[in-house]
Write a structure and sequence with these properties.
Length: 200
């Protein structure tokens, strides 16, 4: 119920003020996050919570299966604002094992509109079919496809004119690919950072 959320919000905001009387005043004055997070909409993968970040510390964009389509006005607007106005230092593309979007993308049956959204995942699966086919079971193939999708999206984000222009201006900016495991709550670095080696 909405009333439940409002009650919880009252408790939360009172607790914040109790710990730090200037907490909301400070957040009002400036938004200065270091990170842009591009993650999945899955309710089990909340950026702030799993990365241990407070309000004000991460600018967040989430959609099904953490994708950036070349014509995605929403995602590109977020990216541009984060890079050019907020001047984030790190862009994190974060996928997760057990992603319903990844599963749906490679299922034989159709799902309607979402199949259009998930097309880049099928492209990645086709491109990496040799590697995926060599894996012994379906779960391993899906897990690897989660990773390959993150790597593909890191490349895609890096190749946007927004990020390319930031690099050519000499702006301090890195793009990293992480994958989250629901089974142990841990983030893993996929080692696909741009510029290469910047994520260690
Ligand atoms: Co997901």
């Amino acid at each position: 119920m909405v009333q439940t959320l409002i009650q919880r919000n009252i408790v939360w905001s009172a607790e914040r003020v109790k710990q730090d009387p200037d907490y909301f005043k400070r957040l009002c004055e400036i938004q200065n996050p270091r990170y842009l997070w591009i993650g999945c909409s899955d309710s089990r993968v909340p950026a702030n919570v799993i990365a241990g970040l407070e309000p004000g510390e991460v600018f967040v964009h989430r959609n099904v299966a953490n994708l950036l389509h070349p014509g995605d006005l929403n995602g590109l607007s977020v990216l541009q604002y984060a890079v050019e106005s907020l001047q984030v230092r790190q862009i994190i593309v974060c996928g997760h094992y057990g992603c319903g979007g990844i599963n749906a993308a490679v299922e034989a049956r159709s799902h309607g509109l979402i199949d259009h959204w998930l097309q880049p995942i099928r492209d990645t699966a086709a491109l990496c079919a040799h590697e995926l086919d060599a894996l012994s079971d379906e779960k391993k193939r899906l897990d690897r496809l989660c990773e390959l999708n993150v790597m593909a999206q890191v490349r895609r984000v890096s190749e946007t004119p927004i990020v390319q222009e930031a690099f050519s201006r000499g702006q301090d900016l890195e793009v990293h690919g992480l994958v989250y495991a629901l089974t142990d709550g841990r983030l893993r670095n996929l080692g696909c950072s741009v510029p290469p080696g910047s994520g260690s």
